[in-house]
Amino acid sequence: MAEQLTPHLRVNLCGVPLPNPLVLASGILGTTAELMERVAKNGAGAVTCKSCGPEPRVGHPNPTVLDWGPGLINAVGLANPGIDEAVEILREARRRLQPLGVPLIASVFADSVKGFAEVTRRVCQAEPDLVELNISCPNVEAEFGRPFSLDPEAAAEVTRAARPVCDRPLLVKLSPNVTDVVAIGKAVIAAGADGLTAINTLGPGMIIDIESGWPILANRVGGVSGPAIRPIAVRIVYDLWAHLHVPIIGTGGVTCGRDVIEMIMAGATAVGIGSAVIQDGPAVFSRIAGEVRDFLTSHGYASLNEIRGLAHARRHMES
Fold first, then answer.
1. 166 catalytically annotated
2. Residue 77 maps to a domain
């Protein structure tokens, strides 16, 4: 009997090689170089820092995160040390991650188009492997503080401003809270983005303590993440890949190897993991990578390339 080959988990994200498709999503484990190194050593294929902005932000008071069973709800409030300190953290993180062969993704936000351009320019001084524009933060320049992510032209304007000052592959993180996410994706790709991250949290939502009658989060409302939103994330990845065929980090409710396979069959190049890290710790990456490898082996696939977009191929076969 011929020796069974171990499937390859390596992927290429916007020209950047990853040892496996699992990406630490932007969040609490991306706050220090030490934490990001720990995640990489536990099997992540790439690491995204917590989103950094122009100035330090304290964020919302506790409680900011709640596990409500089917998922998490959070209102951290974009707490970050500001771009000056963030650049130094990212430089140290890159120094620690390079020997491990794990790319670093710098996530940035701002409250204006000009702010996005400046933070992107500054963050590139740390030489991350990719930059992610988190356009789901409030746009204080627009009426009612609508996020950039809700309007194709606003999203494109941010991307156009960041593109000339970014010498790295540029990703844009999309929101599910829109009527036509494909229109937003098309707009940012046309404006110069190299790929997409889909999706950010759903909502906002609210959980009320029925004993006190008070909302549990200090901010009252927060973004919903975790397994409850995974079917929405899978559908959005599917739609984006069907219309755009660009690199996508599929993010939202991934907790196991089968969830990763589902995202990749929908068209994702890589898969972000966030809530599962909060619940299970950094070791979740090595566990999930093993589950992905076992699935590929048991189904006779040599690499992830053989299943990427498979759901679309099945649809075409039926039609």
1. no
2. yes
